[in-house]
Amino acid sequence: MQHVTPKEAAKILGVHVSSLRRWENEGKLRAIRTPGGQRRFILEEVEKIGGIPRTIKTICYGRVSTHSQQDEQRQLEHLRTRYPEAEIISEVGSGLNFKRKKFLAILERIIDGDIQRVVVAHPDRLVRFGFELVRWLCTKFECELVVLNDRKLSPEQELVQDMLSSIHCFSSRLYGLRKYKSSIKEDLQKEVASQGIDKAVTEQCIENQAIS
Questions:
Q1: If we measure between CA atoms, which residue out of 135, 123, 134, 129 comes closest to residue 169?
Q2: Which residues are catalytically annotated?
Q3: Beta-carbon contacts of residue 114 (< 8 Å; ≥ 6 apart)
Q4: Where is the Resolvase/invertase-type recombinase catalytic domain (predicted)?
Q5: What is 3-49's CATH number, 3.30.565.10, 1.10.3660.10, 3.40.50.720, 1.10.1660.10?
Q6: Class of domain 58-153
Q7: Per-residue pLDDT tens for 57-103?
Q8: Which of the chain's termini has less CB crowding within 10 Å, N or C?
């Protein structure tokens, strides 16, 4: 959520700073106080009072599991065509990995009120599981979540890979009941190297075993 100083708010509205104080006292305009006691106004509310149309910040997010997938460029071109003014963010990583840096950065920006619309080609481009939780978060912070539902941009091979990774994760947890964590980590790392399973997913499996 973006804030402005009284001087900046007065300039946007074309009024004197004293008018802002009066509106604040009348409850027409909210103000917050900084740790130093200075007033700050919410930019969106200032623009609303002034009848200024709200600028919609749109993010288009594309994801593939590996660098070798040519699908990424098709995703981005498709999104860019539909939303030419949007900020394009692409990422390489498994849809099962909730620790993707750019994915988490987008969630933080939604919570901060910096993004008003997120666009993806298909739900699994955002997350393989837990999409409804992301949708709930967007709704709570007044961010529109647009899904184009283009199944051509959701590779079948990636779905197979994610399913194998899920099976691998659960199998590893059962295996963990019989061996110490250090032994499990060594075995999993060998398996990652031989089968090309997403490293972040494997590390998450190891952390889950430590909890259980």
A1: 129
A2: 65
A3: 2, 57
A4: 57-195
A5: 1.10.1660.10
A6: alpha beta
A7: 899 999 888 776 566 778 888 888 999 999 999 999 888 889 999 99
A8: C
